[in-house]
Amino acid sequence: TELQFVNMETRSSDCFLCGSTSSIECPTCSHVTACSSSHLSVHRPNQTCRPFLVKRNPVVGRYLVAARDIQPLETVLCEAPFCVGPSRERVPVCVECNKGVQDVERGARCSGCSLPLCSKECAAGGRHLLECQEFRRRGWRAGDDVDRIGALMEALTAIRMILNKKALKSEDREEFIKDLFDLSQGNGDIPEIDEKVVNEAVNIFGEDLDREEFRTCYNQLFINGKSLGEGFPPGSGLYLVFSIMNHSCMANTSVVINSDTEIQVKAQKLIKQGEEITTRYGGLNLGQPRRSQLLFDHWKFSCSCARCSDPTELTTFNSGLSCTAQGCQSYLLPYRALVWQCHGCGATEPVDFVLKVVRDAESFIRNNIGGDVDSEVLERTIWSLQTFLHPQHYMLAQIKLVLLNKYSFHSTMSRPVQERVVQLGQELAQLTIQLDSVYSSTLGKILKILIPAWSRLADADLASGSITRKHFQYRKTICYRYVDNLILCSRIKKK
């Protein structure tokens, strides 16, 4: 497509990526201008226009805003990882797919550098190729010391980041877009790198290793790395454009990592032109004060989204603790930084008390739910926790979701179990819609279990004569709505 140059006398605009004066307008969508063809290529990879602009703020740094209205379920971003590698646990893993390796000494090894692999397919893979070539060129091979291999596992993703950047610069300078590597290193203290990790990198590269660059990449991965999540062995990827997105607990997008590790971001509500495009850094089922702790400890910021600004968390009471005042049936909720207040009687408790209750609950869960527990244990745990947690508390919601899944594996369900499945499913579905969206992948999992139980109960009640034909049709209509909603949820994952 022929590039369209902006008439600078009649129109002034900034490059969508770097903010400098631009002279090129996207000839396809006309929503974006760029300062160079390389920057325009970030907007339009694979002949598809991306519907966002990069903005900057002295407080939050870079962030994405919608260049036009983005419709629900519309793809905002598809991006391959710049690099993928093991997590920081220092556990020996296959350097191609990140699967754990139980026996390093006897297990498969790379013929070039002797690092662990798990299969012939992984030995022929390409993810490990670049560093292996570098290791062989330098005559380095991994030994059998598990601690040293573990330290290298922690260093490996940073090494890949450095080597990939070097290769990109040497192959085609036009392809190396500096602004994409303007990655955040956080606003506060980042855990110091263990010297064993640095030493393993030095042991390989010697004086050729720029220690400052290594530490910078390590820190950037700590802040910007994206866990590969469900369906993958423990590991993380660096997605250069995705890393620009800021957090909101009420994110307007949903994120899926496909089997080829490509990240796919879709709108899960209407995003108006000029509105910030957000993602969720932590999990959906995490309440206060743990959610605030996670965000501050890892990324050094406090969230002010609609959920965090409302003590009731959008009327869900997702973090509510039973009030300690005698005779009060209400719940303690976040009030100030160091104080929680009862939603009913106004009694207050210090946050230290709240943290103790949360720790005690977490300890109770660990001690009672371990391994493959049965549904009765889960039910007793829920009953015990509900004596001091709100029924929709995030910890209870997590256990109820496990219980719902447990019931779904029953080959046959008794009437009481079917009724319990419907009760749990409806409660969790409503909570998920309030805190996420009608397109939530979590909602889809809940509906897959809820729908059959709901339908069977309706059929049984009609057959027994306990409901009229009219009421049966009403319940079937609700079931059809659940099915429609399930279809919407499934579309989030489609490419």
Q: Would you write up a description of this structure?
A:
With 495 residues, the chain is an alpha+beta fold. It has 14 helices and 17 strands. The strands form five sheets. It has a four-stranded mixed beta sheet with strand order 4-5-13-10, with no helix packed on it. Helix 4 packs across helix 5, helix 11 packs across helix 12 and helix 12 runs antiparallel to helix 13. The radius of gyration is 26 Å and the shape is globular. The two termini are 25 Å apart. About 2% of the residues have low confidence.
Low-pLDDT parts are 5-12
Strand order, main sheet: write it out: 4-5-13-10
Report the end-to-end length measured between terminal Cα atoms.
Answer: 25 Å
Helix content: 25-40%
Which value, in Å, is the CA radius of gyration?
26 Å
Mean pLDDT: 91
Q: Please, how many helices?
A: 14
Total number of β-strand segments? Answer: 17
Instruction: Characterize the overall form.
Output: globular
Major β-sheet profile: 4 strands, mixed
Name the beta content range. 5-15%
Which class do the helix and strand fractions yield?
Answer: alpha+beta
Secondary structure layout plus pairing:
Layout: E1 4-5, E2 24-25, E3 33-34, H1 37-43, E4 52-57, E5 61-66, E6 75-79, E7 83-86, H2 120-123, H3 129-137, H4 146-171, H5 195-205, H6 211-224, E8 226-227, E9 235-238, E10 246-247, E11 253-257, E12 263-267, E13 276-279, H7 290-299, H8 306-309, E14 321-322, E15 331-336, E16 339-342, E17 348-350, H9 351-368, H10 375-385, H11 394-408, H12 415-435, H13 441-464, H14 469-491
Parallel strand pairs: 10-13
Antiparallel strand pairs: 1-2, 2-3, 4-5, 5-13, 6-12, 7-9, 8-9, 11-12, 14-15, 15-16, 16-17
